[in-house]
Design a protein that fits this description.
Strand order of the largest sheet: 2-4-5-7-6
Order of helices and strands: HHHHHEHHEEHEEHHEEEHEHEHEHEH
Distance between the termini: 42 Å
Radius of gyration: 30 Å
Structural class: alpha/beta
Length: 504
């Protein structure tokens, strides 16, 4: 079996349980092994980064403690000297200058003592903050470890089962569970990245026209399968008088509603989740409305209301063990609402259910403006892109194979380049409609390659395919000449929707 850089543990299991003939005769099995191998390698890299981060934080904590000890030693030494100086003053054992008096010197010494006391208080505060930060880090790492290990355990366990069971039905069934586990990991990482961007002040609220009603209906439909796993139903209730054509950020508003509905689904079993939109007022070309997410789930203790909106927190410790989650979803929701000049309200009763609500005041847009929506429609039908010529610049062989297979399903003519330098050479020698550009590559990265292409061609669309969602990286990409970007792992529907704009 020819798979590059195969992980030693995986290779050992393959040789132990699977024959080379069986692998050679089953293309699906070979492709699956390639994906699993990549997961093994990426997990080791992530684990190493986690350990480095932990060691760094522990080092910072140690340095603060050492600094505190050193300063306390200095303070004790100074205080002893001051006591001796004051004693000398009282005993008239020192000679003062012509312009000095014992009272002046005593005041200076007292000021010094006060200064050192204030500095000591600051050090104690720094130590206390460091201890709290260290405790929060430990709690977060513990939660992350649990949340990451759970789907990974499912993936590793299923790999073992699939090695033993070689039937097609078993393979297809287990593949569905693997897909579900991978999606959970993806959502987990997105929560962490979004919260980090909000904390760093790197999220800007867009102001584009969109259909609010269409957005809400899409969310309700897209979450129906997830709701059915807990035997729940989703009901969307929208005021008939509701003016839905508004200007704001559909992506972030959609994220808020999705977080609240997902939270309701998690804590409700065999129940009803309602997404209710009521028109409150229309004035001065503004639409003011109230959004409510209502469930009949387990409910929340009133004393825990503020706690659940704090990062890494849930109402009860056992909640994490029973229902999972990072404790970031509601914290992200609250911060996004603040960016929209709103806030979250909660009504809840244990055993009865919960009602999360917020009010938005948004401008109404003229119907002659173009409707835009950054969210891929749940019912979006992928279009045939026959005739479209695409240059795929990507260094990862697995990603190349996956992207190539997806593009060929749409009858796209695909040409490949393993790094930016090869991409430039192929760009000069051929004619393409679109370039899909990875940003992080050896030899020459996507930034430099894009800049060189833009020196001769300012019109060809260049779409970045990147695993980094950092605002800084994406802003840098735009400055180099990238037209738009897609974050890995990407939704094929999103790629299709972006590429269809360039079909002639």
């Amino acid at each position: 079996m020819m798979i590059e850089n195969i992980h030693r543990q995986l290779n050992r299991q393959i040789k132990k349980h699977l024959s080379e003939d069986f692998i050679a005769d089953n293309e699906a099995v070979r492709k699956f092994i390639e994906v699993v191998n990549l997961s093994y390698l990426n997990f080791e890299k992530d684990a190493e980064l986690f350990e480095q981060s932990s060691r760094l934080n522990d080092l910072e904590y140690y340095e603060i403690n050492q600094k505190l000890k050193s300063e306390l030693d200095k303070k004790e030494n100074i205080q002893n000297k001051l006591i001796q100086a004051i004693k000398q003053l009282n005993d008239n054992e020192i000679t003062l200058g012509k312009e000095e008096s014992p009272i002046d010197l005593l005041q200076i010494l007292r000021d010094e003592i006060e200064f050192k006391k204030e500095f000591q208080d600051q050090l104690y505060l720094a130590k206390s903050n460091a201890e709290k930060a260290n405790e929060a880090k430990s709690d977060f790492l513990s939660i992350m470890s649990h949340e990451i290990r759970t789907p990974l355990n499912a993936i590793i366990g299923l790999i073992y089962i699939m090695e033993k069971e070689n039937t097609l039905n078993s393979f297809q069934e287990n593949l569905g569970v693997l897909k579900y586990s991978a999606q959970n990991l993806y959502l987990l990482i997105n929560d962490i990245l979004d919260f980090n961007k909000i904390e760093a002040g790197k999220i800007d609220i867009e102001k584009i026209p969109f259909d609010f009603k269409e957005l809400v209906l899409h969310i309700g439909k897209s979450l129906e399968i997830k709701a059915s796993e807990n035997l729940n139903r989703i009901e969307v209730i929208i005021d008939d008088d509701f003016i839905t054509n508004v200007i704001s950020d559909p992506l972030r508003i959609g994220q808020i509603i999705t977080n609240l509905v997902s939270n309701a689904i998690k804590f409700t079993k065999n129940g009803l989740i309602q997404i209710k939109i009521d028109q409150i007022q229309q004035k001065d070309n503004l639409s003011i409305f109230k959004v409510q997410i209502i469930d009949d789930g387990i409910g929340i203790d009133i004393q825990k209301f503020n706690l659940i909106f704090q990062k890494f927190e849930q109402a009860e410790t056992k909640t994490t063990r029973q229902f999972g989650g990072t404790g970031l979803g509601l914290a992200i929701t609250k911060k996004l609402l603040h960016l929209l000049n709103s806030d979250i309200e909660l009504q809840s009763e244990i055993g009865i259910g919960s009602n999360f609500s917020f009010i938005l005041e948004l401008p109404i847009f003229s119907k002659n403006l173009e409707l835009k929506n950054n969210i891929v429609d749940y019912d979006y039908k992928e279009e045939n892109l026959e005739g479209l010529r695409v240059l795929l610049v990507e260094d990862n062989l697995i990603n190349i194979k996956i992207a190539e297979k997806i593009l060929k399903q749409w009858n796209v003519n695909v040409d490949k380049a393993e790094n930016g330098l090869i991409g430039i050479e192929k760009f000069k020698a051929n004619v393409y409609d679109v370039i899909l550009m990875d940003l992080s590559m050896p030899v020459m990265d996507g930034y430099e390659a894009t800049a060189i292409i833009r020196n001769t061609d300012t019109l060809i669309p260049i779409i970045a395919l990147t695993a980094s969602s950092s605002y800084g990286y994406l802003e840098k990409a735009m400055q180099f000449g990238i037209n738009e970007y897609i974050i890995k792992p990407f939704n094929p529907k999103e790629l299709n929707m972006k590429l269809r704009k360039y079909c002639k």
